[in-house]
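User: Here's a structure from my thesis project, written as structure tokens. My advisor, Dr. K., wants to see whether a designed sequence matches the one we expressed. Can you design one independently, without my sequence as a hint?
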């Protein structure tokens, strides 16, 4: 039986923490669909197309990982794709509070869809796209926080010269 899961997020940009969850999620689910969407509470630095490109590049060579965009409610998308699991990363209690509310709302909308919370490896537990962008904006090193090709695109987007140590 296929176990299809959807890992939704804005991935602005994709980080090593995201990649960790994708690799570990693939060990549990037969198919993992990464659904890149807009978060109305956030203003994205990268366009949807740029984020799609970066996530596809980061997951190249990972079998049974699909990358797509999300333009509907996640529950509607999951039903369309016959997925019954949403994979979500939780780094800290503050993440859990938000994710818990979202999981309950998703369950209210679509009771057949479960949310699975996964904790990233400890070495990535402090990484978020927001923090990566902030460090880069002020010229700090983002080595090891994002794949090298993402760092290059981030530096270019911010109009900065790459950090000497990246």
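Assistant: Designed independently from the structure alone:
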């Amino acid at each position: 039986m296929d176990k299809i899961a959807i890992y939704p997020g804005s991935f602005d940009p994709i980080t090593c923490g995201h990649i960790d969850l994708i690799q570990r999620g693939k060990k549990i689910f037969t198919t993992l669909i990464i659904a890149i969407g807009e978060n109305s509470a956030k203003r994205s630095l990268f366009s949807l197309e740029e984020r799609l490109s970066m996530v596809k590049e980061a997951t190249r060579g990972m079998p049974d990982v699909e990358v797509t965009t999300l333009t509907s409610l996640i529950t509607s998308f999951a039903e369309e794709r016959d997925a019954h699991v949403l994979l979500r990363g939780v780094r800290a209690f503050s993440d859990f509070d938000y994710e818990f509310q979202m999981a309950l709302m998703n369950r209210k909308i679509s009771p057949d869809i479960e949310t699975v919370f996964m904790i990233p490896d400890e070495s990535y537990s402090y990484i978020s796209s927001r923090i990566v962008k902030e460090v880069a904006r002020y010229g700090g090193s983002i080595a090891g926080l994002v794949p090298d090709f993402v760092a290059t695109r981030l530096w270019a987007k911010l109009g900065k010269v790459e950090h000497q140590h990246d």
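When you compare it with your expressed construct, this may help: Residues 29 and 114 are 13 Å apart (CA to CA).
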